[in-house]
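For the sake of transparency, this paper describes our internal protein records without simplification. Because each token names a local backbone shape, the row as a whole describes the fold. One such record is reproduced below, unchanged from the form in which we store it.
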Amino acid sequence: MAIYTIGAVSNLDPTLALISTFVQLRITNTTAARLEPIVVNAYSITDAGPEGLVETLYFTTTFAIAAARGVVTLVIPTTVANYTITVSSPAAAGFVSDISLYAAGRDVNGFTVPEQTFPFGDWKEITTV
């Protein structure tokens, strides 16, 4: 199983107002096979000082993409100061990828936040089990 992340995202502007209120996440099955499970988690991140960062889960969902080349779009709230999103796919060991990911933060008016736009090349694979 491969797990991908966008890393830590700061969501406050200099006046401490939220930059985005949600992320639109698109997950595409790049194979002809049914993919299950796909697990999406969003975490609020806080600084715990010398102990490092603390991640608190605030959004999770698990689903399958049954259709070959199927696409699922999720709307994930981002009403936190800092966040990260992880997506796991059931890729077999040695398999490059069975999904493609694209995420875009959206402001209160629904406009894309350029600094919170993450095409698949920006996602980092954090583990394969």
